[in-house]
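Hello forum,

I keep getting stuck at the same step: I have a sequence, I want structure tokens, and every attempt I make locally crashes halfway through. Rather than fight my setup again tonight, could one of you with a working pipeline run this one for me? It's a single chain of 718 residues.
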Amino acid sequence: MGDVNRNQERINILREKARALVAKMTLKQKVSQTLNWAPAIEELGINAYNWWNEGLHGVARAGVATVFPQAITMAAAFDEEMMEQVGDAISTEGRAKFNNQQKYNDTDIYKGLTFWSPNVNIFRDPRWGRGHETYGEDPFLTSRLGVRFVEGLQGHDENYLKAAACAKHFAVHSGPENLRHSFNAEVSNTDLYETYLPAFHACVTEGKVEAVMGAYNRTNGEPCCGSRRLLKDILREEWGFEGHVVSDCWAISDFHKFHHVTDGPVESAALAMNNGCDLCCGNIFSSLEQAVEEGLVPEARLDEALINLFTSRFKLGIEAGEETPFDAIPFTESDTPAMREFNRRVAEKSAVLLKNDGILPLKKGSLKTIGIVGPNADSRKALVGNYEGTSSRYVTVLEGIEDYLGDDVRILYSEGCHLYMNKVGGLGVENDRMSEVRGICEYSDVILCCIGLDSGLEGEEGDQSNQFASGDKPDLNLPGLQNELLKACIESGKPVVVVLLSGSALAIGYAAEHANAILYGGYPGAQGGAAIARLLFGEANPEGKLPITFYRTTEELPPFTDYAMKGRTYRYMQQEALYPFGYGLSYTGFALENARLSSTDVTDGGLDVLCTLTNTGDRDGAEAVEVYVRAPGENAPNHQLKGLKKVFLKAGESKEISIHLPVEAFGLFDDSCRRKLTKGSCQVFVGTSQPDTRSVSLTGKAPAVLTVSIPETRFLDC
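Reply #2:
Ran it on my machine without issues. Output:
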């Protein structure tokens, strides 16, 4: 409690300092500071500062920095500690670059310490192009990883933030991309509080995230960047948020251009400011001077916004005369050999082994020739996802295997087919690389078929440069001729290992049925090829779990524009998945035994889940212990992840595991926005996967099923 009080005392001091500074400003000066490119005010000692910077999976868009695996890929590690380490690495490089930029008076965009990350939206529909920026489809996993990433990015200094994180996009935002500027996401209170808000709540109340960014769309009729319910009632009043709120870029202009809830820029600026948006990414807040003069915005509210903003700047220590413990981080701390090695380890921990008939790991000494085919085999773009930085070196899958094997094994390579078009050469006929592929198959001992997507096929609206320009996927199918390429490899009769690179689920039923093995690499970052080579040859042991559901077909999905959770994700779907959330194989075996609960009743203090985990194989490896709860209640989810612990075990080693479940884990939100405990029996599943039938059939193991009693129906304070 002492640390909490000291931190609050420090914040109060900084807010008073900000208040005194704001009191010296003219109205014009105040308005200038609400734009993301805030100019210097020399007479007040205020430096120029651009708030817009990106750090989703590495410092982005500002020169060379470590490019970690994409967010969805890192989520597959199911590793909270790793996420904090990644956040810390990003803020170290961010400070190293910032200190150098300041030395040369460079205050351009992407040169600040306010990183607009993480994206904690829920990946509710696999067609959404920006889903690979998120931590997946589950609110609990997203919450845990989001909090630890925020803590890593912001640091633990008692006086200063190492960097400022920003939870986005608040709230109920996940496509369609081509409708986002005008779309109204309609959602029940139950789905709002049970699915769309928990990760934001955790980042605010636990992670103490410094900023929250609003979304482009409306939620239940209100534009998110000017929503009284979201920004004032929930964020400030229910959750006690003390940081600053920033709009998504040019989102406030959507109020009058596309949402048609205001008549022009002045009204739009007033609506956003009055309802709690402090900072405008874009230029609409330039109209605030007129809005204040016309009485549409109280100047006291503008002052409050500036106090929020300058408190954040003071926390970062970026005003003249401030000295922080991070000022001494030199430029050379970015893109170091140690960072590259850490990046490779992150990629190794994040890959998911979906299928293996025993062919993996490959044995270098038993191979004379390996065939590597596919449009993602030598693709840098398939390594990085979007919101990426620039690496000093990229290692593609082909390059990683070449580096690993050296001259000991012959490698035959073909692009095989274009990523999404029907030919590679401009003047060629359709499927113009097929004879090359068949030749490679004939002479190879094993075929590595590298297929999937890249961020040119899934991403943000406007980022794409092909027929998928909206950013969303039209369906879950492999694009172009990739399925034909895979069939040719399978029909050759040679063993085939699929290396799948994508940021979202694909309908890979043919590969699941016919390939000997499938390794899902996600978008594995600049060192991805080196990591995948080590995984394929057993130098590293796969340990990832899917943070998303791989569905069998596009047709089983609810309509993309329907934000109701019914029928979506593992929590509410009725059909059997192709590869379920929480599933992933290893080269070693794990046994979970003696699962038990510390209490037979759910008490206010929650309870502990206890078990013994043993590595039963002959390889060292890591496993995620997953705890799911099926709570009683009307329209209750199938089951929900509520506890998680990543455990590393040497071959033959056992460890006692304890995972705490708070009382909230057994409650469900009703339509009055209250979390309700419903009297009755509650099931707790303890294992290394979901308790669904598909996971059990794929792994050959069923989680332990424990029963706990909820003695009475009551509501919990939120």
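Residues 118 and 243 are 15 Å apart (CA to CA). If your local run keeps crashing, start a new thread with the error log.
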